[in-house]
Amino acid sequence: MSVCRAGYDDFRIKAHGKLDEYLSHGNKVFGGVSFATALACLGLENPAAFAVPSLVFVALLWGGGPRDSWPYLNFLRRTGDPAMKPLSMLRRNHVAVAGWLFLGMVALGVVPR
Fold it and tell me: How does DSSP assign 16-67, residue by residue?
């Protein structure tokens, strides 16, 4: 194995670690914040009116994410790593997506008060 290949493999391993950190952070923080906010909105007189700005806020918060992970995630995306495929990311980020969808359903008035 060449030195370049060894460095590439080490970087890929580190990038997968950063991906795991990113997904864990998203599931814990954004999933929890979305779910808790949705429950809080349901306790109000007009839940949809408060859930819509909360939905936008959580989306903006989620888009920022841990910025130190971005170069590693971009590397995995550019190299076509299977872990970065949309369905794989969706499956691994299931808690955050579920919390955000619950908040969205409150914002749309699908969840009764």
Answer: HHHHHHHHHHIIIIIHHHHHHHHHHHHTSSSHHHHHHHHHHHHHHHHHH--G
